[in-house]
Design brief:
- The protein has one domain: Growth Hormone, Chain: A, CATH 1.20.1250.20.
- 74% of the residues lie in helices and 4% in strands.
- The chain has 21 helices and eight strands.
- Strands 1-2 form a two-stranded antiparallel sheet. The chain has a two-stranded antiparallel ribbon with strand order 3-4.
- Helix 4 packs antiparallel against helix 20 and helix 5 packs antiparallel against helix 9.
- The radius of gyration is 22 Å and the shape is globular.
């Protein structure tokens, strides 16, 4: 493999392409900063909820809406970014997302007005949604087939790294200030938790000007000469000429790609788009983001202190990173579908264990839940097994498959639909959690997520086709 200076090495899956691994790693590193921000922005709210409630006088529904406003923005951002990426380019839309990241972080950290905070969180959500679909799309369009799974999985590594980074920053800020409501340099700690996002957002914005546009987008727009330059730098002149012909042939030269490409006459959407929607929604219906968005609140509901709750968030983040790294090592060997099936079964079992643990919870005089020693240990172990199984499977694999499973001519539009479904499902789960926890309790809530995990086993077996090692030009819909 080449070092950072670039250089062509290693035959591709066909046995006759050589790839500039240093260049590929560099552009994947830049593109996945969007994933880091995706994770950081998503996780920053974890630990700030006491501050939000105190600052804006929020009840449970108000807190759910304030937290979930990011996800409404994510749904809009994912949908419009997918479409806009086919019009002005993948890199250009990522630059717009980086600007929204930066502006949203600064405003969330300083505003005293609830609706302005929500608007800024919505804007940050648009950036998160855009990054969530464009980073895997871009990576899939520049990485060779034999390493595409590993390169796309880096996105999930960065998402979890961003989440864990947010947990660490939140923990140390709360420690330094005494709590999330304490002050540092005249500003409450929970506000610093949002302001800290501005630094990586600025790095992302500047770094995006150093990477090229996707060669497949350039071919789609008729810019073959520019595409050939990028392909040549990726895999050498001889391979680039052949790849350009293959990419051009995957587009109907008499047809301009449009949003209409995702529709079908009898089933509303093409089967491949329905499969993408299934992957996108069930990744959320298993309840993973309750751990990440409400982890601190969840553990305090279970009767532990704020400090211990934040420590458990960090533990969840650390085991998540380890699980994604294992997935990265095996995804191009084992394949996508087997990992999804293993993850579904593992999540179903661990979620069932969490359901059992919380079913025996009691309330103290103040109304706080408490678990006995056995149930508490079971909940902690099961929660970490759950995030391990998720991040070994559905976490990275869904994004890998959404970036690669659609044909070239509909990839942006299909991702727009799947991204909208993914973030819509995310919002539904997060918005409903406070009310569900109050209404049917944590045990009942986790029972619902357990059922979703069981259903996902049968959906994967029936509707998901393996994409390991396939060229993007061979994808059909």
């Amino acid at each position: 493999m080449a070092g950072p200076t670039g250089g062509l090495s290693g035959p591709d899956i066909a046995g006759n392409d050589r790839i500039n691994m240093g260049f590929i790693i560099a552009i994947v590193a830049v593109a996945t900063i969007g994933g880091l921000l995706f994770g950081y922005d998503s996780g920053a709210v974890n630990g700030t909820q006491a501050g939000l409630q105190a600052q804006f006088n929020l009840d449970a529904n108000g807190l759910g809406f304030t937290v979930g406003s990011l996800l409404i923005g994510c749904a809009f951002g994912a949908f419009f970014a997918g479409r806009l990426a086919d019009v002005i380019g993948r890199r250009s839309v990522m630059i717009m997302a980086a600007l929204l990241f930066l502006i949203g972080a600064l405003i969330q950290g300083v505003t005293e007005v609830h609706m302005i905070f929500v608007a800024a969180r919505f804007a940050g959500g648009m950036a998160v949604g855009a990054a969530s679909v464009l980073s895997p799309l871009y990576i899939s369009e520049v990485a060779p087939a034999r390493i595409r799974g590993r390169m796309s999985t880096v996105q999930q590594v960065m998402i979890i790294s961003g989440l864990t980074g947010a947990f660490l920053v939140n923990y140390f800020l709360a420690q330094h200030a005494g709590s999330s409501l304490g002050e540092i340099a005249g500003t409450t700690a929970w506000r610093w938790m949002y302001l800290a996002q501005a630094a990586p957002a600025a790095v992302f914005l500047l770094a995006l000007f150093l990477i090229p546009e996707s060669p497949r987008y350039l071919v789609m727009r008729g810019r073959d000469e520019a595409a050939l330059k990028v392909l040549t730098k990726l895999s050498g002149a001889e391979a680039a000429e052949r790849q350009l012909v293959e990419i051009r042939a995957s587009f109907d030269q008499g047809h301009r790609p449009s949003f209409a490409d995702v529709f079908a006459k009898r089933t509303l959407l093409r089967p491949i788009v329905w499969a993408g929607i299934m992957l996108a929604t069930f990744q959320q219906f298993v309840g993973i983001n309750i751990i990440f968005y409400y982890g601190e609140t969840l553990w305090r509901l279970a009767g532990v202190s704020e400090e211990v709750a934040l420590e458990r968030n960090i533990l969840s983040g650390a085991v998540s990173i380890a699980a994604v790294l294992v997935a990265l090592a095996v995804i191009d060997k084992v394949g996508r579908k087997p990992l999804l099936l293993i993850g579904s079964v593992g999540m179903a079992v661990s979620l069932a264990a969490m359901t059992w643990a919380f079913s025996g919870a009691t309330a103290d005089a103040a109304g706080n839940l408490a678990l006995n020693e056995t149930a508490g240990l079971t909940a902690l172990v099961a929660a970490n097994l759950y995030v391990i199984f998720f991040n070994f499977s559905w976490g990275p694999v869904m994004w890998v498959m959404l970036g690669e499973m659609f044909p070239n001519h509909m990839r942006g539009s299909a991702l727009a639909v799947a991204g909208l479904a993914q973030w819509g499902a995310n919002y539904l789960v997060v918005q409903s959690f406070p009310a569900l926890a109050d209404g049917i309790g944590l045990a009942g809530t986790y029972a619902l997520y357990t059922v979703s995990a069981v259903i996902s086993v049968f959906l994967v077996r029936s509707f998901i086709k393996e994409t390991k090692g396939m060229k993007l030009e061979d994808m059909t819909g």
